[in-house]
Structure formats: structure tokens, C-alpha cells
Amino acid sequence: MRTRLLTLALAAGLALGPTGCIKKMIFDGTVESTRKGAGALDTVADYELARSAASAGLAQFEGMHRIGPSNTDALFLLTKGWVGYGFAFAEDDYEAAVDANNDDLSDYHKRRARMAYERGVFYGLELLGHQADGFDAAKKNEETLKKWLDGNFDDAEDAPNLFWTGYAWLARVNISKDDPALVGELFIGIAMLEKARQLDESYNHYAVLAALGAYHARTAMSEMDDAQKLFEEALQKTERKSLVVQLNYATRYACNKGDKALYEKLLNEVLTSDDPDPQQRLTNAVAKRRAKRALTKARMENCSF
To answer: At CB < 8 A and 24+ separation, what contacts does 130-137 make?
Structure first.
């Protein structure tokens, strides 16, 4: 009897093992296909449709991560997805509430945006952790962080993970400027973006150039010359088809520089551009919404125009 039971147990173990592997292969293949197809939403210019799709997608990605916590494609989708949701929708709602002078609503949407970026940072760091340990020790200062990044990320394929994690970090600081602890760690996001640029600056339509340009133009006393060079380079390399470049060039550089003519020229270019790149319809639709808002009297007065 004992021999028979042992035989049955071994047989069951052998049966369950391959089945588990097959299920994992199917799951991993499904997530990989989802990641490859996720970019299709970028071709949709309908803002409200994209909002609904993005919300549903995030719920799906969260579920994928719960089922397969070690799957890096799911982690990437979560990192990118939460950053995109924060920028395209939560921050847009926040800006609209601010312009409506609705303090309660603006506080609510500000918290939503920060939450989105916090989740982007959380999943991004988990994603990077699959490739390299030691982030907590490395973030001690700029030198130790650079050494960690240089020692562990040296391939162009690492650029997307670094870009979205770094962007999430910067965006979280930008929406939480009243938090000294976060502002004090701004260098972490910058280091990740600089490394992403070094590995593959063309990723995501050269978005890293605009992100770094916005950082260098963060105040009128910051590195404005560097910001201008980065924005001009981004315009040239994107052939002016990525309208978020013009948007950020205007609202960050021209606003803080006090250059009203450049501000209006860039924002009007965004508004009059007619589908310059079908692969960027969604982000360009977001840019148009923000550009129209940026040309209102209240927004221009914030730039001292």
C-alpha cells in the first residue's frame, strides 16, 4: 500500500510540474503579446475613449502582476501605464480644476496624479530590481547612483525601463513641490533619464530630450541655456511631429524665460498642427488640450505676460 501511494504521489508530482510550466508559458506569452499591442492606443485621438481604455488597461495590468509577480512585461506595462495615466488624465483634471478655482477638486486630482506617479515609481523600481540589486544603497548620492547605473545597465534595451522609472520619479516631484524630502531626491530621476538618453535617446520619439529640457527649465534661475539646447534638439529630431516638445518648450522654458513671443508661437503651432504623426495621436491630442489651456489669460499671467 505504501509503495502504491508513493507511486501515485510521484505520478501526480510529475503531472503537475509540466502543467504548471505550460500555464506559465501561456501566461508569459499573453503578457508579452499585450505589451506588444499596447502601443495601438497611441494611434487613437479620441481623448475620452483613450481615458476609458487606459483605466481598463491598468486594471488588467494590475491583475496580471498579481497572477505573475515576477513577470517583467507586466511590471513594464504598469510602470508606463501609471505614468501615462498620471500625465494624460489625472494632471489634466488637476489643471482644469485649478483654472476653475475649485480648491477641493484640485486637491483631489492632485492626489490622484501623485498616486499614479507613486505607483509608477514603485513598479519601476521593482522592474529595475529584476536586473540589479542595491538601489537603496546606491541612491545615497549622485556619485554612488551613477556608479550603480553604469555598472548594471549598459544595453539599449535597458533605456525604456530607465526612462519610465525616471520620468515617474520626476513627475512625482513636480506634482509634489511642497514636499522637501521628494525634492531633495530629484537627482535620482535625473540620473535615470540621463542614463536612458545615453543608451537610446530615440526611444519613445526622443521623449527623454523634452523631459530633461523641462527639468533644466524648472525655474528662471536654473540651466536655461541647457534647456533651450535640449528642446531645439528635440524639435529637430522629432521633425516637430511630437507636439509635447513644443508644449513643454513653451510652458517650461518660454514661460520662465519671460519670452511671450516664443510662448505664443509654440503653443499656436501645437493648436494648428493637423495630425503630424499617426503614431502619436493620443499624446498630441493631450498636447493640444494643454496648449489651449496655456493660452488663457490666467495661465499667461502666471508667466508674468
So the answer is: 130/70, 130/72, 130/75, 131/158, 131/161
pLDDT band at residue 17 using 50, 70 and 90 as cut-offs = low
* pLDDT, position 22: 77
Tell me the domains of the chain and their CATH numbers. Answer: 2-302 (1.25.40.920)
3-class DSSP state for residue 218? coil
Residues in the chain: 305
Asked if 276 and 284 touch (Cβ cutoff 8 Å), the reply is: yes
- Interval 105-112 mean pLDDT: 98
Alpha helices by DSSP H, the chain: 2-37, 47-67, 72-85, 91-99, 103-129, 135-138, 142-152, 159-175, 180-183, 186-200, 203-216, 224-238, 243-248, 255-257, 260-272, 281-294, 297-302
pTM, 2 dp = 0.91
Rounded (10°) angle between helices 103-129 and 91-99: 160
**Separation between Cα atoms, residue 117 and residue 259, nearest integer Å:** 30
Supply angle C-alpha 48, 32, 131, rounded to 5.
Answer: 110
Are 187 and 146 within 8 A, CB to CB? no
CA–CA gap between residue 171 and residue 118 (Å, rounded): 9
Query: Angle between the 281-294 and 260-272 helix axes, to the nearest 10 degrees?
Result: 140
| Cα gap 197→203, rounded to integer Å | 8
Q: What is the DSSP letter of 70?
A: T
Q: Is the pLDDT of residue 210 over 50?
A: yes
Residue bearing cell 509635447: 244
Q: Which amino acid is at 233?
A: E
Cα–Cα distances (Å) from 75 to 51, 61, 71, 161, 221, in that order, read: 20, 8, 7, 9, 37
